[in-house]
Amino acid sequence: MNMMTLWHISGWEFAALAFAALLVGFSKTAVSGANTVSLAVFAAILPARASTGILLPVLIAGDVLAVLTYRRHAHWPTLGRLFPAVAVGVAVGTLFLLWADDGIVRTSIGAILLLMAGVTLWRRRGEDGAAGQAPDTVTTRSGRLRARSYGVLGGFTTMVANAGGPVMSLYLLSAGFRKLGFLGTSAFFFLIVNVSKVPFSAGLGLIDGHSLLLDAALVPFVVPGALIGKWAVHRINQRLFEQLVIAATVVGGVQLLVG
What we know:
Elements: H1 2-7, H2 11-29, H3 36-45, H4 48-70, H5 76-99, H6 102-124, H7 141-161, H8 164-174, H9 179-203, H10 209-218, H11 222-233, H12 238-258
Helix pairs in contact: 2-3, 2-4, 2-11, 3-4, 4-9, 4-10, 4-11, 5-7, 6-7, 6-8, 6-12, 7-8, 8-12
């Protein structure tokens, strides 16, 4: 197979990439943050730098499916508050990449994810009823500060390693989003952010004809993952949903630290 020869990957390695693509679809329509496993798989099989450019179109395919599934549940005031802070985070991430090597990037993001998962668990000890609140808590002073903080970190992590999902998942949980509002808001957020990154990735040579050839073979696997996620999310209660999101964040953080 020309595509596999081009990237020097075996059949088993392609199967692992296909499973990672399926997991992207599942994470976009069910447990956001689970695709940190996909990030690790891509980085393990492909050259680390090239893997970010190959993964981006796969993520966008998942974002499109998530938007089509949950488009009626997005909370636009939250998105409006996040994007300016995300832009700052992307700028900081770009500067960070000018001097940091892969090891520093992975360690930094892993530490951030674990720290924020711990903060989220600590905050929720005294906020058992928070998940039932409407997400208009972002209009308070503390809510605005929280949105800015998570927005900067989300922009930073998505720029340096396509790893913004867990950060934004923790923010949306802390803001009191229910499942569908959580998924609808994150779907539009990441579709807009990931599409905006395409020109920069192409300019850096991370997306080209060779990478798109591999993407064309992997994107079809996103669809069944998204369908499985859509089926599963309605069978997961709110508390389990939140626990799975936090657990996926912790797993992703550990993978980045020890990988």
